[in-house]
Amino acid sequence: MPHRSKKHTGRRGDSGRRASGWLYGHHAVMAALANPDRRAARLVIAAKTQDLPPTSDIEPEHLSREALEALLPPGAVHQGIALQADPLPDWPIEEICDRAEARETALVVVLDQVTDPHNIGAVLRSAAVFGALSVVIQDRNAPEATGAMAKSASGALETVPLVRVTNLVRALDKLKRAGFWCVGLDADASVVLGALQPAAKRVLILGAEGAGMRRLTKETCDELARIDGRGSISSLNVSNAAAVALYALSRD
Questions:
Q1: Which of 55, 62, 152, 211 sits at a 20 to 30 Å CA gap from 235?
Q2: CATH architecture designation of domain 93-250
Q3: If pLDDT is split at 50, 70 and 90, which confidence band does 59 have?
Q4: By C-alpha distance, which of 130, 123, 246, 127 is closest to 193?
Q5: With helix as H, strand as E and coil as C, how does 39-100 read?
Q6: Residue 202 burial by Cβ neighbours in a 10 Å radius (0-12, 13-18, 19+)
Q7: Bridge partners of residue 62, in order along the sequence
Q8: Which of 32-46, 79-93, 150-164, 227-241 has the lowest mean pLDDT?
């Protein structure tokens, strides 16, 4: 479980004023209940047999499925459980750099203009599977970490820091100064991802589907690489591409 160091405590000015929201789905709720950084206000379950973690100190409310669904967005796949909780505190990019100092190897994912909360959640889940240090997104136009993102992340939102930055290029420069090698995923790159030279600390940058990385983001990369697909379809969506790329880079 990630915990903040004492070296950097700066947080976005409006983070404390963001409203609480609903998380739903078994893995998302259980991970949030087990996260000491999460402040929960209300736990609702639709079945008395729902297992709760032994560390949970919040008394659950038992509602009908219809009453529970009335609390959530239409179509929410809640699996009979939901948690009203405050947003997680913000992580400054400097703290991610500090955490990397103590590690021999480190991997960070940067998403350039990826705005779908389901895609971001799926990338967080892959980042957790392959041991990435964090996922970085641009604050402008990025979705809040709502229930839809948490559900797609399947608990990873509680364990992989989601870092919001004002300027991606400046964030990449800070990661470079911390010893990271920045690899941008580009379908037109001449180098195949699996042929890259090993590096102890890497940043994997992915752009939005269709548009890809923006020009300045691409120019800030140390290297561009592509996934060597051989089938009849030439591209993957961003969350699947992230999973494949993270697997390839984690093998180095």
A1: 152
A2: 3-Layer(aba) Sandwich (3.40)
A3: confident
A4: 246
A5: CEEEEEECCCCCCCCCCCCCCEEECCHHHHHHHCCCCCCCCCEEEEECCCCCCCHHHHHHHH
A6: buried
A7: 45
A8: 227-241
**Residue ranges covered by each domain of the chain:** 19-85, 93-250
**How far apart are the C-alpha atoms of 168 and 186, rounded to whole Å?**
17
Give the C-alpha separation, 148 to 118, whole Å.
6
Contacts 24+ apart (CB under 8 A), 211-218: 211/113, 212/186, 212/187, 213/112, 213/184, 213/186, 214/112, 214/113, 216/169, 217/112, 217/168, 217/169, 217/172, 217/184, 218/184, 218/186
| Complete edge-to-edge strand list for the sheet that includes strand 134-138 | 162-165, 134-138, 106-112, 201-207, 181-185, 223-225
Query: Residue 165 is encoded by which pair of tokens?
Result: 């930055």
The fold of 19-85 is 60s Ribosomal Protein L30; Chain: A; (3.30.1330)
User: What is the pLDDT confidence band of residue 52, given thresholds at 50, 70 and 90?
Assistant: low
* Nearest residue to 135 via CA among 148, 114, 102: 114
What is each CA distance from 188 to 196, 224, 228, in whole angstroms? 15, 9, 11
Q: Name the residue with tokens 């909780």.
A: 85
Between strands 81-85 and 40-45, the pairing is: antiparallel
Q: What's the pLDDT score for residue 12?
A: 43
Rounded to 5 degrees, φ, ψ at 29 are: -70, -45
